Amino acid sequence: MITARAAATFEPVGRSVATARAFVRDTLQGWGCADIVDDAVVLTSELVTNAVVHAGTAADVLCLRDDGGVRISVADRYPEREIPLQNAGQVLVHPDREGGRGLLLCGALASRWGVEYTAAQKHVWFQLELPERPAGTRSAGPALPVDALPVTDARVRVAVIQIDRGGCISFWNEDAQNLFAYDPEQVIGKPLTDFAAWPHTPGTGTGIAEALQLSRWEGSYGIRGADGRVVPVYASHLRVRDADGEASTVCLLVRDHERAILQSPQRTPAPDAASQPEGRPSDPFEVFIGSPAPDDLDGLLQRTVERARDMLDGDAAYLLLATDDETELEVRASTGLPSARQRFARVPVEAGSGRYGSARMPAVHEDLTAVPGAVPLLSGTGMRSVVTVPLKVEGRLTGSLGVAAEGPARYTNEEALRLQFAADRIALAVERARLTELEKLRRGSLSFLVEASDLLAGTLDRDQTLALMAQMTVPTLATWCAVYTVADQTSEPELSYVLHEDEDRIDGLKTLLMKVDPPEPVPTPGARVWTAPSDAAQDAALRTSMRSLGLGNSARPSSGPGATLATAAAVGGETVVLPLVARNRVIGMLTLGKPTEEHFRQEILELAEDLSRRAALALDNSRLYSERTAISQSLQRSLLPPELPDIAGVEVEVIYRAAGEGNEVGGDFYDLFPIRDGAYGFAIGDVCGTGPEAAAVTGLARHALRLLAREGFGGPAVLERLNAAILDEGARSRFLTLLYGELWPQDDGSAVLKVVCAGHPLPLRLRQDGTVEPAAEPQPLLGVMDDLELYEQTVTLDPGDVLLCVTDGVTERREGTRMLGDDGLTDVLTTCTGLTAGAVAARVLRAVERFAAEPASDDMAILAMRVPEFQAG
């Protein structure tokens, strides 16, 4: 039975793909289906692309929800298109090919999919099943000795917080007040998101907004206390409704180390006591690990290390997971060690110095001081003895589990066997949870890259591209980001953009990076570690601390110790550099960093590498576009007169508007120049087409007009010679419409003009009484015929008269099937009686702009000349 429905139609334009993705994402999140959002967005993106880009039709997207899942249908108006069939004798669509990938993705990601045809449409639909969320079960654990019970504080405090349907706090009990130091009146009515420090990893886990909507949720996060510190908590959420049907969420929270109070017990029944071997005591590891949730890898790993430590009475424990090629181990959980510093740190497996030699077999180290470096993770921690065992699945190394103690000779082979037995029981569950996490991460990464590519492709502005690169990585991939650009192979890298998730840290971070030599622009793909920022920050913090204690130079530091220490903490973790390579050239570096002693996980670095490749191409495209635009604008300016001469007794105003993005060169042009004493030449023209060929004709026309006019040739002779010069260009020649004239101001306040109109819109004369008439007759355009017989016409402008000259970008202004035309321009000019030349030109431009809602598609030039009614002295 269908329980929810949403539909939308998208136009056949490229931007509709992003709009459709946003529609599906918002719809599914509103339905509480966050678990399948990433898959749905990716599939919708491909299917809508097929419709609006490849088929060139509108796309109808329909979302339906039923009790089992969500069905999404994308329909286009092109039912004749073939679909790829996976027959034995047919080659599947290549992943790099533009069309057909959407259907293959449906087969890979959807639980069901299909194609339906009608006479006018083709429907492609896919079904995504919603994962089951068990609401929890009742169970009881066995009796345990006191020393095997979990440890808590003497006074256990359970914070009870109730959240209304809007996500705001409606109840705050006394224990919550004690744990987080907020009085109820300080928090009630505010969103829980203002206080929760939620773990953020793309593609994995559940957001806090989604968690509050689930019927039951359990896990770890942090609450920012009144002192600004984050208190790690373990929480259990339960969605309830009151007698009026109003829904809310009750949250029970305890300190993270007291999680056993709220943590759900094992999901499978404990083994019956009769089935236990006689005389064998209950193993705390077996009791508390049980059958963990398959999608909670971090919780499973953390419980594993805690139970392993308790089982062997150790001071610390840790668990590392192997990479796919088994060459490195990555720290994923620890207890009794500085876990924040070590999380996601990587050590090699049996390779070179710092080798982790005991990874593939159980090992006992009685005293680490005798074999320094045997277990790199424990260096500098004070641990002396350690037992390590491998986690293996089908003979393949998947991880390593270790328990350490501060005293020497604490462990023997017996403890190694016990720990190996526990590791063998948990290895398969860990591997399954890890693969589930990787699959979620990869699907989330695919969705992230799809949207990132769309954003990067949506701009050709260099500064905006740099900002997008940083904003997409912070905080999703890193805590801070810096983008360096390289102008050319001989230039030094330049720091172009800096971003930190805490805006207060940006200035200090930028100042620090400006003092550090930039990373070397190496084209080698992949992320490489860069220690310079961390070293410089620690050095600056040390010097500042010594000065504040009076141990160093007495000069006052430029910033307080707090600011310097905060900057050092912000960049104190792992920093990596990824090259931005486009068209076989390094054009910059993307630098990502973590706060104090944190590390990147390998999957995040792989995602960042994919992003850097897309960002590099977008950045290089913006560079090429900026260079092209600058060249076009520079050339366009060179084809127009730098300034207009002052003509005594005549007002002159010119307005020029270049149409099109980037201001393509070579369209309309104008000129006004002195010929000799008392005589001036003016011209306004339009070359057929745009681009370099049109620009060549434009430059030829403007300079030839000046040269020939100053040699004493009359208007017809000037244009006839120009016509011959254009035809001499051969295949590069272009048609040219041109209005050319000569102007002589008279002593009586009038002005005499001699004009030749060669295929150009006729000049219009506005008299004082408001009448408008053409001031010339049409003659053949230039660049077509060899033999032209042109003639000039004489026009006298009386005081108060206006001569208006325009290009066809004015008269051919369109709105649908309507066009402004000569009659429309005449109507506008009749309203300009008594206006100055500048006001006339401005009114004409305003009328043209208001005639249609869309931007102008053609260049426009407006030349207005007016003889004032009253002349000075």
From TrEMBL:
One Pfam entry name: SpoIIE
Keyword hit for Transport: no
Region (Disordered): 262-286
Gene3D superfamilies in alphabetical order: 3.30.450.40, Histidine kinase-like ATPase, C-terminal domain, PAS domain, PPM-type phosphatase domain
Source superkingdom: Bacteria
A Gene Ontology BP annotation from the UniProt entry: regulation of DNA-templated transcription
Keyword Nucleotide-binding: no
Keywords: Hydrolase
UniProt GO molecular function: phosphatase activity
SMART domains linked: GAF (SM00065), PAS (SM00091), PP2C_SIG (SM00331)
PAS domain boundaries: 160-190
PANTHER family assigned to the protein according to its UniProt record, in alphabetical order: STAGE II SPORULATION PROTEIN E (PTHR43156:SF2), STAGE II SPORULATION PROTEIN E-RELATED (PTHR43156)
NCBIfam families: sensory_box
Protein name, entry field: GAF domain-containing protein
Lineage: Bacteria, Bacillati, Actinomycetota, Actinomycetes, Kitasatosporales
